[in-house]
Design a protein that fits this description.
mainly beta, Jelly Rolls, seven-stranded antiparallel sheet, four-stranded antiparallel sheet, 3 helices, 12% helix, 34% strand
Length: 235
Amino acid sequence: MSEPSELRIHRRAEVRRTALDEHSWVELVEGFVRVPSEEFAGVLADTAWGQTEVLRYDQYVPEQRLSAGLRSDSRPLLRQTDLHLQATYRVPFEGVAAIQYRTGGDFQGLHSDRAMRWLDDTRVAIVVLGQRRPFVLRPRGNWTASLAERLPAGEHPDDVVLMPGEGDLLVMGGACQRDWLHGVPAFDTPNTRISLTWRWARRVGRPDTNPGYYDGRQYGDAPRKPGSRTRRSAS
């Protein structure tokens, strides 16, 4: 039975799951958005993008990307994705955080979404519009080594590299935010990438309250936190 033409998503698109370890996994749903170029243009044009500045020592430093918070009922794509995620995973997701990587020079360092605090069982779902770029996952233990031993995202032998874009859906689950890092490294392209992110965390275990500097809490897509400020984009 074919899906109604007004649907903006493919509800039955194939899901490919990769087990990262005993407790963590990532899923990739290629072609999740039905007309990704149209949705990309709409989100890019209609969103009030801003640039977050993060306090580093004694000065604010701009992040290399733009961001915005969106209402899930502001676009049919967001509303339908929200309903699909809640029906599929049977949990109440929170969203939607939008991130714009203007060109390949914009990036997101390796981090985990520790702002959710409870990290033992989480879901982080990302609809990726526009340019395909590497999305890198790395076991946390390989990030806590000495600075001299750290390798750029995508270059460690234990890194898992996916290439979402053009309307794909990526979902990280289980203990992925506790035991793994993820990021979007710089990439050789002049084209723009947009990510739309939903989150959920089961409040079990011990909440995370004291992330280290290199855990990248400053890279999260959660609402602005103390020690940061957001300026409206000039574009």
